[in-house]
Amino acid sequence: MEPETITVLDHSEWTPDPEAVHRVLADLVAGGAALGWVDPPSADEVAELLDEVLSQARAGDAALRVAHLGGRLVGLGYWRRYARPTHRPHADLEKVAVDAAAHGRGIGRTLTAALVADAAAAGIEVLTLDARGDNTRALALYRSLGFTEYGRLPDFVAVGERRFDKVFHMNDLRTRGGQ
To answer: What domains can you pick out in the chain, each with its CATH number?
Structure first.
């Protein structure tokens, strides 16, 4: 039996599927994933977010990548350019999410590396991100792809009674070539 093929597409190659994106994000958040929501987002909220990111990607102000495994959407990630004129050469890697059932197959690494390459190709000078301090697998992945920590807010993220550090990373594409 052949292993299932992982396919990574950019926004121009992908037919938007808000229901599949909602399924991935809502399932991950329901399982406790650190994606910026405490409760799973609604289908309408995800559809609106997807429309915004796709519109920005078409205008050259964002990049969106999706991953399919065996024809099923299992991951997505995107960055968006900062809107302020003084920050235009910079972008924030806002989300990389991989279906829990597909973890360990290199999908997060493939998506993130593609997004870093997209940022470099778009002339982004510095790609930033923040992550919850207990998300050690993601933090290790980001470091392996050339991101360095530049700050930390202790106990900044509140999830119920629990508190987590907010960790800031950057990849200076001017000096590292985007690795």
So the answer is: 6-127 (3.40.630.30)
pLDDT digits over 121-164, tens only?
999 999 999 999 999 999 999 999 999 999 999 999 998 899 99
Give the integer Cα–Cα distance in Å for 103 and 90.
29
pTM of the model: 0.92
Quick one: which of 132, 89, 70, 141 has its CA closest to 111?
141
Please tell me what DSSP assigns to residue 71: T
Can you read off the two tokens belonging to residue 80? 């968006």
Question: Which is nearest to 118 in space by CA: 151, 66, 78, 153?
Answer: 78
Q: Buried b / exposed e across 69-83, counting CB within 10 Å, b at 16+? A: beeebbbbbbbbbbe
Q: What does the angle CA 143 – CA 147 – CA 153 come to, to the nearest 5 degrees?
A: 90
3-class DSSP state for residue 28? helix
